[in-house]
Amino acid sequence: MKILFVIYSIYGGGAEKQMQYILKYIDRKKFQPYLALFQMTGKEKDVVPADVDVYDLSTKLRPASFFLFFKLAKLIKRIKPDKILSFMWGCNLVAVPAALICGVKIIAGERTFPMRSVERYGLGRIRRQLISFWYRRAEKIIANSDAVRESLIKDFCIPAANTEVIHNGIIEEEVRNKSGEQVQGIPEGEFVISAGHLEEVKNYGFLIEVMAQVNKTKKVPLVILGEGPMRRCLEKKAQAADIELILPGHVRNPFPFIKKSFVFVLTSLYEGSPNVLLEAMACGVPVVAVDSPGGIREMIETGKNGIIVPAGDGNKLGVAVEQILGNPDFAEKLTQKAKETVHGFGVSYMVQKYEELLK
User: If one looks up domain 172-345 in CATH, what number appears?
Assistant: First the structure.
């Protein structure tokens, strides 16, 4: 079967990494994968298997969605795929109508918490209506957490029977092996770490405020891996709060940084199913997360394999970080249980579930 995969970019965040895994491990005896991208980064050869044809649909014309629709429809007619798998609502709103007009079945993957994600953009009400309209016409909508599925059903009126949950997967052995590599720039001694695009939704300004509280008890640096538009703003905020903030930018291998840290903190305003939490757990690092909308509660059980604190409660987040920094036995207890948790999020099982739907 010919399968056309559609995503905005194949290099960058969690959704991109999950599609990389599917492209790499999908059974070549049953499926022939093709990849259509709305934006090229120049790094596609680093992450896309050599036997996957990559099609650049990028356009500078506006409105971009209009022209992307026609370019994708033209590609679909050219390749004649048996099915299409598209990731993320921005792409899905282009891919679903393009697939339908070409008479091809499509599975749409939702990778973030859609209600909150849509609110970040203008014309939010219209976008919600478009998602509701087009998603109901896809063969299946795949959510990466139960919380995302529930939002699709409740907030977008998607029939429950038309949805399915496939949790994100990671490769534990790969994470562990990469975490042992020697890289430059890792601080000496104790430090707190987070990772992700430097943007408002990651709520790093809040994390800096919490670290200012923690530093009153124990002065430790904060490392944030990633790059983005908020770099300068975060640097200024850290300077004003008198905390040591280290921003290495986008690093090719983040796992040695995570492994050497003493606690990983996730403060996002919302998440679909954060890969980075699983990766930190696989690195043997205790995790603390804010209880934001999304699938965090499907990964962490407070006090057993990590800690979840109420959204917006800086005091409790600070106490949780201090508890881990000041109690090595408790930290070790969390990491041991976390490693067991990660076993249930293997890539092989995730890819198998997608293969079953693509048949």
Answer: 3.40.50.2000
Taking CB atoms within 8 Å and a gap of at least 24, the contacts of 329-334 are 331/262, 331/263, 331/286, 334/286, 334/287, 334/304, 334/305, 334/306, 334/307
Q: What is the pTM of this model?
A: 0.92
Per CATH, 2-166 and 172-345 having the same topology is answered yes
Cα atoms found within 13 Å of the Cα of residue 32, Cβ hemisphere only: 7
pLDDT averaged over the chain? 95
pLDDT (mean) for 12-32:
94
Interval 85-98 mean pLDDT: 97
**Quick one: average pLDDT of 37-64?**
94
Q: What is the DSSP string of 219-254?
A: ---EEEE---TTHHHHHHHHHHHT--EEEEES-S--
Tell me: pLDDT of 12 over 80: no
- What pLDDT score does 257 carry? 98
- Tell me the residue length of the chain: 359
User: What would be the CATH architecture of the domain defined by 2-166?
Assistant: 3-Layer(aba) Sandwich (3.40)
Per-domain residue ranges of the chain: 2-166, 172-345
> Which pairing describes strands 2-7 and 140-143: parallel, antiparallel, or unpaired?
unpaired
Tell me the torsion sign for CA atoms 60, 63, 64, 66.
negative
Q: How far apart are CA 27 and CA 33, in angstroms?
A: 10
CA dihedral 180, 41, 52, 76 (to 10 degrees): 150
What is the pLDDT confidence band of residue 118, given thresholds at 50, 70 and 90? confident
A 10 A CB-CB count for 62 gives 8
The letter for the amino acid at 67 is F
Instruction: State how beta strands 307-310 and 245-249 pair.
Output: unpaired
